[in-house]
Amino acid sequence: MKNTEKMSFATKAIHAGQSPDSDAGAIMTPIYQTSTYVQASPGVHKGYEYGRTANPTRKALEANLAALENGKYGFAFSSGMAATSTIMGLLKQGDHVIVTNNVYGGTYRYFEQVMTKYGLQFTYVDTSEIQNVQSAIQANTKMVFVETPTNPMLKLTDLQELASVCKQNSALLAVDNTFLSPYFQRPLELGADIVVHSTTKYINGHSDVIGGIVVVDDEKLAERFGFLQNSVGAVPAPFDCWLVLRATKTLHLRMQQHNRNALGVVKFLVEHSEVGEVIYPGLTTHPQHELACKQQLDPFGHPGFGGMISFKMESFEQAKSVLEKVQVFSLAESLGGVESLIGHPASMTHASVPKSEREKFGLTDGLVRISVGVEFIDDLINDLKQAFS
Ligand SMILES: *Cc1c(COP(=O)(O)O)cnc(C)c1O
């Protein structure tokens, strides 16, 4: 195995966790499509006994993503939700968790409709104000689970500040880093204990896999996750691991282009008369632009803001007309793929949130969300121009 520890992000993305196959010298990690492994003598084997417990293709992916997050240990799962549900396995009946109030809908549903039945308690607060977290802490608070930036309002939480509050109160800090990927945000470096991703989004980036990953730096936590991953068993198929491993080789290139294209689209939107507020952490008008510049850094320390943009139109009718006219953009849920997507949160991703609740955090019926892909920027702008006309 190459020692990639001191190498830069791009080199790690391509090499970390991987070495030429020892049988044939294949430069690419093979898809080890196997459920079991032959032992030379009882208990004498090459580190692999059964496919749920470990698989070489999965192991390569886990090492690769751990390296990109600057953590020591990675654990791959069959979906982002499988990763989050396995994190909950760290807790026990009676424990309390503080959660970002505008967390991913599936996470909210899992916490409220499944985990509360097992005696876990959740409090949802606006974690962009650290004071709100402090006020919500109870004697039984064992974890703080945050998403930054949030979807679709792109509110940020100061991870460094939050990590110190968590440490003072002996609570674990788990960060869902799906929206920025490790290219633009590495929570472990800022003091978080656990990073979780839906690899379905930017990490895989080609809209052809559902997957998840957990990365930690602490050895004891890693032991727990190894145990939980094997016990719960929500592991990804070797082929899916191979696809994601192929995708991470270009993560840095894709993220740079997502970011550049987003800046181009934002400029167009800001200048367009029919568009109201444009929400993007890269805009100086974003209330937390300064925090974004401090916390969302590429591997060279330059601020990056990712590919997610939200903007407000006057009404649902206006938004609908744009959504129906786009041709290069596709009207779809999800995000983080090479292709540009456009969506209407109020009727799509956030339809299950009551209108009065949605509007409390600014998610109006005229709000449109864009996941900017890596197409040629002029084609994206021209598409929006014709859709707005
Ligand atoms: C999609 C998503 C998830 C859930 O991941 P799946 O792979 O769909 O299970 C969790 N968090 C965020 C921020 C997401 O966007």
Compact description:
The protein has 14 helices and twelve strands. The protein has helices spanning 9-15, 56-68, 80-88, 105-113, 130-136, 159-168, 181-184, 219-232, 238-248, 251-271, 289-295, 316-325, 355-360, 377-388; strands spanning 73-77, 96-100, 121-125, 141-147, 172-176, 194-198, 212-216, 278-279, 308-312, 330-331, 341-343, 367-371. The strands form two sheets. A seven-stranded mixed beta sheet has the order 1-7-6-5-4-2-3, with helices on both faces. Strands 8-9-12-11-10 form a five-stranded mixed beta sheet.
What is the general shape? globular
The residue fraction in helices comes out at 25-40%
Number of strands: 12
**Tally of structural domains:** 2
SS class = alpha/beta
User: Helix and strand string, N-terminal first?
Assistant: HHEHEHEHEHEHEEHHHEHEHEEHEH
Name of the CATH architecture of the largest domain? 3-Layer(aba) Sandwich
Largest beta sheet: what is the strand line-up?
1-7-6-5-4-2-3
Highest CATH level, the class of the largest domain = Alpha Beta
Largest sheet: 7 strands, mixed
User: Remind me, CATH topology of the largest domain?
Assistant: Aspartate Aminotransferase, domain 2
Percent of residues in β-strands: 5-15%
- Going by CATH, the homologous superfamily of the largest domain would be Type I PLP-dependent aspartate aminotransferase-like (Major domain)
Poorly predicted ranges: none
Q: Over all CA atoms, what is the radius of gyration?
A: 21 Å
Number of helices, where a helix is a run of at least 4 consecutive DSSP H or I residues: 14
